[in-house]
Amino acid sequence: MRLLALSHRRRFVAALATAAAVTAMTVVAGSVMLTPASAATLFSADFESGSSGWSKSGGDWTLVADGSQTFQQSNTGTDRARQFAGSTSWTNYTVQARVKPLGFGSGGVSALVARSNGATTMYRLALTGANRVELQYMNGSTITVLAGVSRTVATGTWYTLRITASGSSISGYIDGTLIGTATNSAISAGRIGLFTGYASARFDDVLVTDSTTTPPSSPAPSASSSTPTSPSPSPSSASPSPSTSQPPSSALYVAPNGVAGAAGTITNPTTLASAITRVTAGGTIFMRGGTYSFSSTVTIETGNNGTSSARKKLTAYQSEIPILNFSAQAEDPANRGLAVNGNYWHVYGLIVERAGDNGIFVSGSNNILERTITRYNRDTGLQLSRTLSTTPKADWPANNLILSAESHDNADSDGEDADGFAAKLTVGSGNVFRYAVSHNNIDDGWDLYTKTDTGAIGVVTIEDSLAYNNGTLSNGGQAGAGDRNGYKLGGEDIAVNHIVRRSIAYNNGKHGFTYNSNPGSMTITDNVSINNSERNFSFDAGSSVFRGNTSCRSGSGTNDRIVGNSDSSNQFWSGTNGSRCSAYAGALHWSFASDGRLVVTFG
User: Fold this and answer.
1) Which residue positions does the secretion signal occupy (predicted)?
2) What is the pTM of this model?
3) Is 381-595 CATH 2.160.20.10?
């Protein structure tokens, strides 16, 4: 690992990510170069850990639970209640949030704000008590309507609002549908905001990206159009779009208000379940933004396959954010969210939350799961395992790539099984996790558990990834039954030669990297483990090979335990820190670069 000095900060950058390439994570000086191929996150807030970063101007604002934590303004007698965040220097960006109006007074509005360069000068996308959705320019007491549509605005209903500002072009969307684009050069830069005027409302899932692509859009729905109503929490880092190019005319389109028998065009979208059965090898299902509410598992059936040269694709449409919400499910192993049982699929940019078991369950092979977020599920967020107990070992899931994915705040009722990522019990060979982030799950970041009644699982590779704060949820919740490791690499004294390289374990509730009774010959290279509660590295048996690893603590803790082949290229912790630890002082920060690389900084 090459270390170059940075003033007060250190940056890990994994080299260019593709579905086929594997390259090193290094510490480099300077900024990450972002390409315009997809969106980079500038700011996000789901309010699970509070409302830091926001500044109030009027109104009565509190955090309240609504399926998850939300930010509520409750005073309908206030004409200008605002919360601002972000930078006054932001120019071209997209801001999105979910908004639930609770009540309207006379002339009341609940709105999302962009380019605010003062307390009363801004662009805003407003839900009104007069059943209108309007894109407005506010300048003091003067409100100019730039675009708008008539639409039923129901109190107690969640709406996804989005504003894109690019130069003098300002666009507004509701639930992924364009309401209008206007030209207005009055404000060139400014912060984002949440706004109510003579109204009360809840806000959640705030996301700001540097994407300013304006996708083709169907006309805004009429007042009779249905609107998704299930609440859902927000990503801590959002999934950018796979492409900003014009989608192919043969693609199938899915929307929250889609109809199963619809043609599946952008103006006549279908349902996800229908599109999955209709897409052909090489075809694409585009999911429009918004919340999709499900009470049963969405399944890509065994035999519904693409090919190695023509994958089937299930992907977020451009910069939009589809949220698959399964909060209607009870906690039960049968109640998964999205089940990928087919082969040669590429799933991109989806958020899957609140399932009764796994958020995403993969039993197929040769699939790519990219830029997914799995959160608040009641078992492991994303798990690879066989479908049935009768599935022969030759058909266990193999050669799957989990790429630039995030999994957080997954928690089961007993606190014992909900990990961020898992490839355990029954998986074949060749499964890879790359540029993945697992944090604040009730059990482990990664679980590669194998057991005697099924036999050894295949070798799993974890590279250029991050596990932190596992064992403690974002809201501070814990469970005594959780193992709370960063990377748990085995079980029941069965030898499997897993590979873990260029990855980071930080502040997990037990061990950072642990063999967990795996006596195999694992390859553990160029990893960094920092301030985990017990051991940073815990390997009590086996013949694993350790090279280039670094262990650091800011205080006291249990010495690392290494059994295997270890040389002087490692700096393990035995009461003192090595010279490399100065690079990892300060708070941890991370993001995904536009090409999917994981970028981690300390300072």
Assistant:
1) 1-29
2) 0.68
3) yes
